[in-house]
Amino acid sequence: MTTFVLSTFNAGLMPTTLEPVVLGLALFYGGIVQVFAGLLEFFKENTLGGVAFCSYGGFWLALWYLSSHTEFSATITPSDKGHAVGLFLLGWTIFTAYMTVCVARTNNALLITFVFLLAAFVCLTIGDFAGSTLATRLGGWTGFGAAAGAWYCSFAATMNATAGRAIVPVGPRSR
Questions:
Q1: What is the pTM of this model?
Q2: Please, how many CA atoms are within 13 Å of residue 86, restricted to the half-sphere of its CB?
């Protein structure tokens, strides 16, 4: 949900003056709830789930802090600010790239989700480093793919667990 809402702004579908609506989701749902989910995954001995949920929860918490508690000096140029945010996003792009490799051994639904997430991070990183509105917009649109994939995976996991059998397919990958 947090990715969907932020992607709406990145895609240019809502005015940026309304972006603070993302902050509550980033702090609570994308941040705190995901870290908690990650900790539960570690207790279940699911390292991939634990690392992914805790890390992306940390991403949302960091983005919340960056957006609500960080003020760049008035003397900094927009280009320098873009480079600083681009550096932040580059780190997450690198993390997402190697997590995509790890996820490739799970199932197709999760792999597709991570491919879209990686594409979104690549576009957003380029957008900030290059000051490219087009790249940022493309990052928003690919973010919608990541959000849809995450919702599908969440739905499949919940429905299949509730039914006690696989009803919603995720396309298992061969190991």
A1: 0.95
A2: 17
